[in-house]
Amino acid sequence: MLAEVIGKDPGLEVAGTAANGRIALEKLPQVLPDLVTLDVSMPELGGLETLKELRRLYPDLPVLMVSAQTERGAETTIDALFLGAADYVTKPSAAKGVAASVARFNETLTDKARELCAKRLEAPPSPPASNQRVIPPAPSTPVRGLSRKQRVEVVVLGASTGGPLVLAEVLSALPGDFPVPVVVVQHMLPLFTARLCERLAARCALSVREAVNGERLVAGGARLAPGDYHVAFERMKAEKRQGETTLRVHQGLPVNFCRPSVDVLFESAAERFAGGTLAVVLTGMGQDGKRGCEAVRAAGGQVLVQDAETSTVWGMPGAVARAGLADATLPRGEIAREIVRRTLVDRARAPAVKEWI
Predict the structure, then answer these.
(1) Full-model pTM
(2) Would the N or C end of the chain have less CB density within 10 A of its end CB?
(3) ∠ CA 77-83-87 to the nearest 5 degrees?
(4) pLDDT above 80 (res 337)
């Protein structure tokens, strides 16, 4: 099915197929593909074992995992993303209607394959290596915005393709007594976001979990939009909780064909926190987040984006940068440091304990 779908796309060509991971590793030097699709479950040499060898031998070769929409499939796919897979697609599910599910699978597969191949073809291919090639950090753009009158009151992040690994790096670098709440949209399906939260929580000093409708924001806490749900901010009007900010988790219409959507989160942050918003756009396909960054900048907030060199796909951050909305464009290794630096402006120190907002 994979070969048929890819073969029908005029911009893609099937370089070769393999029945299992061991055969794939033997064929790779002969066919030299721009992208590998890799099933999670394979005989003889499984998906994760094959991926580890691919990352060792071909550190720059994008890998797109093909997963089942099950608890086990989600768990293994998140493991694969943390091992360096660029992204994943889920196999068609009869539960959602065979025809519609197959059509969606075909579109998702070819869209992601084209994007990942395009990124790879921007630079000449590197030969097999015995260990990971180190990419030198690109110089950051001049940093503006530290003299703004309103201090940062919330950090909102958006990510898609390649995002889980960058999120892990950024969130794990933030201290447990980080003085403001962090809310994240990662384009991902239900089940997968729950497994991602488990992985992030194990690595981070922050309290990380999926957002729950109606919960209050907590400093030192990171909340991730559940798969298939938008997340936004809401000011409570009840007498005992008047003025408090809570999270609204809902299934409004998709925005930019996405639910959760980065635009929904960012626009809500701009409306609730105005100039106190620090928005961060990480690697990802498409333009989700651009309109939200326009709202953040219009309200006096700040915007950081990941640079092209360290992004798996420079779609989302690139759209923001090209529109002139970014206060700084940074390599992934500098993003957490810059978030902390901007958040601590006008604060004597980060609080030693969590505080409610």
Answers:
(1) 0.86
(2) N
(3) 50
(4) yes
